[in-house]
Amino acid sequence: MTGTATVVGAGIGGLATAIGLRRAGWNVTVLERRTELERYGAAFGIHPTAQSALDRLGVGDALREHAVPYRDAHIRTPDGTSIARLPLDRIERKAGRPELLISRPYLLDALLAGLDAFGDVPVKLGERVTDLDAVAAGQDLVIGADGIRSAVRAARLGDRSGPREAGTVAWIGIADFESPVHGETWGSGRFFGLTPVEPGRTNWYATVPGATTAAELRGFFADWHDPIPRILDTTDPATWIRYEMRHLHPALPSFVATGARPAPVALVGDAAHAMTPNLGQGACTAILDADALTRALAAAPQGREGVAGALHAYDRERRRSAQRTAFASRTLHRFMSTERTRLRNAAVRLLPG
Question: Which residues does the UniProt record annotate as the domain FAD-binding (predicted)?
């Protein structure tokens, strides 16, 4: 079917949804509350399933132009001892392609280029939604892709579900040299991650219960294995990003509101299932949401009943899967952050190599 839709939010999920809708013949407008898109330099891991979804959206080649494969990574103790390998080789054998890592700005640019190719999809910046009824007037569908504090979700599904703190402070940054090792190092109540992101650079992230300054963060990891102290000592703290880790809780009973007036609503990405970053699946789940939603709409018959049927099909395909991923990520966060390191490390050593 075709129709007219407004996508609220111009992040990964919102832009991917807009592309999918436009490819299906919809008239689409994108509204973004920020005056410029978020381009901070975190690396996204893109699983082969999400790569296939981006291929269907027509932006897979642009993704691969700037992405790097992720093939060798370990879980280590603070002294550098490897206790397990991440299952990246099994992912590649099963899918026939490796996990990819890409900088957020490159992925955004790929999606924006895919949208710009149509030439008729406005992306309106500085548009904060305060009256969803006014936004929905004259539309066949509204997509809430506006993050963990989604105004669309609150307006149509209520405020029972909302941001909940995970109790941990996270820091992310990019170092201008290539780390000799990749993966994650797990200590007592804190951990540090290192991934490739592009030639000559390394993406890093760290979590601690309560570090509030760069000096405190450096102190927490000063005696950990190389290159962790070196990365923190030689990168400018002004380029680091600090945030309180949050997730959406409790889980939503539905990702859609088909009876909403004047137009039905569907949620994608963090608006539907914001999760802790421990599994590195936030971008992937948003892309898979966009793909599933727009495939269902493309196959639906015309009219409001067709939209409703497509939204229910999307909810059936994505809600339980995305919520399982979010739950697994929160569980892994607690496991990684425990202070009972001896039991945890013994359990990790039993994982298949």
Answer: 6-325
